[in-house]
Design a protein that fits this description.
Structural class: alpha+beta
Number of domains: 1
Strand content: 15-25%
Number of strands: 6
Number of helices: 9
CATH topology: 60s Ribosomal Protein L30, Chain: A
Helix content: 40-55%
Radius of gyration: 17 Å
Amino acid sequence: MKTLPQFTRGLTITTLAAVIALGGCANMSETQTDSAKGAGIGALAGVLLGAATGGSKGATQGAVIGAGAGALGGYIWSSRMQEQKRAMEVATAGTGIGVSQTSDNRLKLDVPADAGFSTGRSTVSPTLQRVLGQFANTLNANPVTAVAIVGHTDSTGSDAINEPLSFDRANATRDYLVARGVSPVRIATDGRGSRQPIADNGTADGRAQNRRVEIYVAESAAR
């Protein structure tokens, strides 16, 4: 999959392709329609990723990302999304993994360090494996959604270590889902290193909160 810098450069073209793909289905054969939907879902994953991480990139990128999401019609919180949220709440009970609905109607899974990966490693933990197995089932039951996975680290270590580690964790999460039948075209990944902390890196608890993976799922309104 494309990483964020490549995605950012191609956002306008990708968004246009998605609009054409999603809007042209009425006059297509069944095979053509399926191909167009696949292209639209792949483009949506890119927009999802930009929405998830665009805050650190400044107003210009935020405006472009917003335009892309608007062109795709935004996201909807359907009964399928609600069912997936309930299923993941059950699957994550007692794991420390958070499940929530975002303000723009995406399903978000917050995977903290203790539930996801050992320090300095990108191997998916047994706890996260169990959750991702159920997560893959819900994704396969709702194939019109797109997924964005974003890896984060704390500030311990250099950017030369943290940047690839955050990507590796996001990609390991993606690979686990793909191995369980989720189409890779639906999934975009990114690594943010230590650049988007949610807590104080000056404390052990804060660093633990910053070592995380965020998973976003969205269903496009433009279908």
